[in-house]
Amino acid sequence: MGAKSLAFPILGAGTLKYPIENLPRTMYEAVKNYSDLNSSQIKVVNFVVYPQDTEIAKKFDEYLLSKQESEEFHSKDTASSNASLPGSQQEPSSMTPRTNETSKEYDGIEINLMIDSISNVSLDVIVNSTNKNLELNNGSISKFILLAAGPEIQNECNQRYPQGISTSKIAVTKGYNLNCKNVFHLVLPPWDENSPDSILANLTQIITTCLEKAEGLGAKSLAFPILGAGTLKYPIENLPRTMYEAVKNYSDLNSSQIKVVNFVVYPQDTEIAKLFTEYLNREKNEGFHSKDDEDEEIEDNVSAGQKDVGVTLKFFAEYQNLDNAIETVKKEYDSLLTTEKIPFDVDLTESRKPNLKSIGTDHEVQISIRDKIEIHGRHSHVKNAKLDVQSLLMEYKEADEEIIFKDIAQWSYFDENNPENIRMFSDKENAMLEKAYSLGKRFLNLKKIKYDIKKMCFQHEGRKFKMKRKQNLRYEPIPDTWSPMEDGELIKIVPVKNGPEYDDIQATFSRNLPSYRIIKIERIQNKTLYQGYQALKRKFEVENPNITNEVDGLWHGTAEGSIDGINKSGFNRSYCGKNATAFGNGVYFARRIRYSANDKYSVPDANKTKRIYKCSVLVGRMMQGHRRLKVLQDSYNSAVDDIQRPRIYVVFHDFQAYPNYLITFSV
């Protein structure tokens, strides 16, 4: 109808008797949700209260005031990201080489669309899409760069990267005869129709990595070709949004020293130039809209489809006594029912859910999965079902641990009188021994046998046995940045008082949290946790060879009481859903330090001291998160708030994140 404004009365507050305390939030959120999810021409909505309805007016005033106060933390970002942006809106009349064809500025980063050869660009960094062997004479972009830079650039590639680089990695060389300081050479995976979201998310990630690396080198400007548009066959209609949003997302999350990013289109690629120009102009006119977190609570009912077991009751009575009779029976029946909630810290994959369903069927109870497993039914049935569910969860947890710990080390034993006859412990025993070893325990009691882990021996039926622990061949050396550790030292918390590590974190605080003061920075050196993380990383790289599996520099705010547990055991699933569930019931990490530094996540202690971890996280194949997500779909490794421009990452595996640094800070 073309309307631009509406007026609503306070719906339901009169003879319909809707509770007035519920109406402010319901009506406000309905309008806000519509605004967030639609590019609307409606500009004004008025809620109209009759003068005599003072109580209703008071409720609406209090609610709107509370919304303003609670959202103040986010309002600055919202305002800046939705601000009108300068730049030409005219479509080019021809495709002759020129710069600044059209531009847009995001919080200080000016984005230019250039119609030219990328070898003609004059900026700090030029990005080159090439092949794994870094043979620059292959591929149209590389050929132009090689021709303009000279043979020295190929020589540096050969010397510094003799084995080439893997997919989604970056090689850095000088610019030589190009008008730039450095060239970033990267390798992208080919387009995969079966995994379009993962491929585009990977493109976003590698653009982000380029921006981070450029900023680390002190660069203030970059030029990107249109990545994936050539022989890799990325659909060109997806590229404008993906590339622009990657830069915008980086700008939103960082107070960046980078001021200019150019996307460079070759003059003959008129269709690509048209798509990029149209997209940029459309965004100028419409602005960007963000989705609020869903606020719904939807259960995953694993008992769905099972036949209800019960009886039908028919009541015959005089009309005036019928309601009383039904109510009496209902109360009596309800007293026979109960609900038990069981926390879980294992991956309940789709293949595992049927076993829970079977327990529900066997015991005639209803089982559903929310943040906990809920069992509903008669008292005696629920009690028996609970035991079976707990036993099943323990089996799953042990199975998960067996896989991880076997990848770290293999334990064996032999009779000291017959050392040649070496036997391997079972996977279950191996996991329990390795877990005890990693926790620094002296003894492990298992099946009436006392294993001496320090002396590596045990006795059984009067015979003495020796034990051996063989480090898995895929053992990952500890990082060079770690301080020395003794052979038997598994965990070491090291103060970081100066150097590049300290300076990097301090710079992040200065840019993004200027009102906070760092009290101390500690490096977490946990050998067992690090090896588990590396083992899972290798697994991801085998399963997802063509995408970026790891994201560094994510943040996780926490409370003082959780520090020891995280330092020793990492982010196990006992932390799932503690502070957030909007994108799934896992452990949350954020690109934006200000998000994790919020008091809701980085909980102040009595002295108003706060704590936050800087982490490495294995994200692998990402899926769109949502509040009802309890377990990931098969073949996915993490959930995010937005596939195209993820800012929040949710993981569900014990070894999927490593806490590199713990920062203690205060106002």
From TrEMBL:
The EC code for this enzyme is 2.4.2.-
Macro domain residues: 98-284
Q: What is this protein called?
A: Poly [ADP-ribose] polymerase
Molecular function terms, GO-annotated: NAD+ poly-ADP-ribosyltransferase activity; transcription corepressor activity
The residues covered by the PARP catalytic domain are 478-667
Give the chief site where it resides: nucleus
Where's it found, cell-wise? Nucleus
Which is a GO BP term held by this UniProt record? Answer: negative regulation of gene expression
A Pfam family name for this chain?
A: Macro
Species name: Octopus sinensis
Q: Gene name, please?
A: LOC115229862
* Keywords annotated in UniProt: Glycosyltransferase, NAD, Nucleus, Transferase
Please indicate if the UniProt record lists Glycosyltransferase as a keyword: yes
